[in-house]
Amino acid sequence: MSAFAGSWPTSFQSGALSLSGELSTTAPFARPARKGRNVERTSVDLPAGLRQRGASGVAVQIVDMSPEGFRVATHLDLTTGTDVWLRLPGLEPCHARVAWSEGLYIGCAFVRPLHPAVFDMIAARSRQR
Question: What residues contact residue 54 under an 8 Å CB cut-off, 6+ apart?
């Protein structure tokens, strides 16, 4: 199942990751709620790139996050335990592992939690949008 309608720019197909454009997270289904996490997540609305080991990056939309993990809307079908790298503009890619996947959403845990100052900067960017 794919939530993306349209075509990828040529530069994306060749492996370059461009985060310009729009991705709609409006969907006719409920976002799954997750219980039992260590830290409360903050709602955000940020475009990002997500890449699996050995694959090209794809555009995703971060819908919530904490210093320990994040949830994104994506068309990727990823299994629990898959290594991924999250890329936000201006930051180095962050290594994470898929903790769960349901519908068009995946939840991931950072291998190394974000520093609180870095997380605060990301949350502030989201509020400015």
Answer: none
